[in-house]
Amino acid sequence: MTTTPAKIDWQSLPAAKSGQFRIGGDLTINRLGYGSMRLTGKGIWGPPKDRNEAIRVLRRAVEFGINFIDTADSYGPAVSEEIIAEALYPFPAGLVIATKAGFDRPGPDKWVENGQPEHLRAACEGSLKRLRLDRIELFQLHRIDPKVPADDQLGALQNLQSEGKINHIGLSEVSVKQIEHARTIVPIVSVQNRYSVVDRAADDVVEYCERAGLGFIPWFPLAAGDVSKKSNELERVAAKLKITPSQLALAWLLQRSPVMLPIPGTSRVEHLEENVAAAAVKLDEATLKGLAKLARSA
Questions:
Q1: Which residues are catalytic?
Q2: CATH superfamily membership of 10-297
Q3: What confidence score (pLDDT) does residue 6 get?
Q4: What are the angstrom distances between the C-alpha of 241 and each of 28, 65, 235?
Q5: Cβ 97 vs Cβ 140: under 8 Å
Q6: How does pLDDT run across 193-223, given as a tens digit for each residue?
């Protein structure tokens, strides 16, 4: 017996208050997404301590209206993708699962770039199998491997796209120059760089993405839950607004740019609920200006 995927009115749910964005012109998502790296064991290695809670987090995320989930074959490795399928398959219409490839994982907390075309192809095919998909809607190059010509890596993704195994292509941890070069080879729809209210080294990339209409996916947006430890001012402003520092950090990201697609990750439902509540927080101009000063002092 085949289970019919659920039909969800994504824009009627809490995460929709974050606003919407169209990836590649055809994938409409609520801008506040979910990053699944933490659905693994210590060192992003092996299974999570509480698999049942991981499944609850994913299902609750969808109930909240999160329809953009970011993962990678290297998370676990393979573990995160397997849990996503276990929790959510058959996937409801409108749920976009983005995954990444470009790393080997020799052990906990160990990441080795691998942009060999055959590796990227094998990673894609493995992700398709684990996620039980015929096509990956957004497939991201986790890193541009300096040991392999960039054109070869991007060419491998282009071939997968032409074969219908992936729909759109994204990049991760790249400069404006690298994005510009990549776009001469394949269409790029998104960029995922490290970025947060206390870590704005990628400001130029955010601005480029906004001009080009590319989605910008900030990873580490809450500094693994320690964003308030990076700035006493952030904690003070959050207390004044009667929200948590994490909610302030997410609200700032959502107002930073209309192409911003934050993907805070957590392995606990209570933290997920806290993060989703940030979608409804609107910061006034005075607060935004104050946080701009924070960036210069960080």
A1: 75
A2: NADP-dependent oxidoreductase domain (3.20.20.100)
A3: 74
A4: 31, 25, 10
A5: no
A6: 999 998 999 999 999 999 999 999 999 888 6
